[in-house]
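Consider the record:
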Amino acid sequence: MKKQKNNDTVKTVFKYIKSYRISIALSLLFAVMTVVLTLYLPILTGDAVDFMIEKGHVDFKSLAALIGKMVIIICITGIAQWIMNICNNKITYNVVRDIRQDAFKKLEILPLKYLDAHAPGDIVSRIIADADQFADGLLMGFTQAFTGVLTIAGTLLFMLSINIWITIVVVIVTPLSFFVAGFISKRTYKMFQLQSAARGEQTSLVDEMVGNQKVVQAYSHEDEALEKFSEINNRLKKYSLNATFYSSITNPATRFVNNLVYAGVGVTGALFAINGYLTVGGLSCFLSYANQYTKPFNEISGVITELQNALACAARVFEFINEEPQIPDASDAKSLENVRGEVEFDNVHFSYVPDKKLITDFNLHVKQGQRVAIVGPTGCGKTTVINLIMRFYDVGSGSIKIDGIDIRQITRKSLRNNIGMVLQETWIKDGTIFDNIVIGKPDATMEEAITAAKASHAHSFIKRLPNGYDTVVKEDGSNLSQGQKQLLCIARVMLLRPPVLILDEATSSIDTRTEIKIQNAFAKLMDGRTSFIVAHRLSTIQNADIILVMKDGNIIEQGNHQNLLKQGGFYANLYNSQFT
């Protein structure tokens, strides 16, 4: 199973690499050139030794010409190696760019159920840290493993051209290096896999603690957080040490084998030289080849370790990329235009977990321009109804229709473009105040943004900021209060003025006086528009045309405020409990 997973990972890597065939061909060409010229130098060195082997009989003329030739070859080798490295870098970082691009694209089309079930820090770790680790391993693979294999093959050919018997000694001892490297690499992959998973877990915890440090300190959760971090950190240390220990054995083990090769070449070559079958220059050349032959094995043993780490990281990234995306728009999906705002729930069933029912047999017909308030205890399904209207989740059975069209037959983009939503959770992107207001309408003018801000009562605090609408807010608006962030989110909707509105605790972080003003502004905005309002403060939804009282995923009461109070049921008890 693990072997199959490794094979699939390698195949996926090659799928990305093959897009850069020209760079690969150039890298191969200059790698061959580098190896051939590097291996040609020992022959010239051996000739140079033979030119000055006898005392008083040094051939200076031939030696000078030889040295000049060697200098030219060294310069050409250096240039070829430089170009090869440029090609390798280009291939590596283009491949990693493509992988990250595909990972981020997948992030944008993943269903919310995946994001709800996975820690954000782990997802970030896969896209950023694991991709970086993969890049390091891939680059090392190109620069060392590739040239190393060529060097080994080329050295054998050059040695065979000089003396076949000494070469046989080298070939006989060589398999020991492959056995040692293969034996150890099998044990390192699992450790690197565990190391990557623990690193993602640690990133997730740090991300959670940084984003919620106020809550952590408010509830004196520091010791528990530190204990959990220490536990993960110790596991990461354990996996990292084991991975490093196993991988560190590879190099000295292969060096030992390589030294045996070198010793074998030296002893055998000396015997041949003593008996006149090999010159001293030839022996010098052979010893140089033996050193060059064994060097790639040391490098490749290190590369194997990095490649194991790279493959483990790549597997995590590809696992994310291969996740099932959200159900795509139907091929004949329509674009929603000229929306009236008539919404119908027809026998809707839905649950987040298959064996745990939430919404069952939900039926509702909302006419154009009606204001629908949804109330009920926590976990009754209020926000779930909103998620279904926005098609963040698809219904299990039944249908939701807008203007008589099943929303599954409407493109998501056109559906959401016609619905304005303000949530209790605010999201502010890194940019200016103006950028945050016009996020749903990028072509809006400054005048339009100011009008929307005034309608949402955000204009007064924006004017007090250092640069007004050009003030840059930090990621997630950390330099704004929660109420100010919510006002900006309301301003976005005021700018769009969509035909359908969804307000999910839209004023929960705003002071009472400002809330009354915003409620008046919303009242004007909702005039003629279909609106869904989720609220815990029942005083804010008394003017709704329909109040749906939900419990355990079902509508248990329905009517306007006065009628529901007269019934003296669940809503009446809920409303009166505010004053008890």
Remarks:
- The radius of gyration is 35 Å.
- The longest helix spans residues 222-274.
- The first strand starts at residue 343 and ends at 350.
- The chain is about 65% helix and 10% strand.
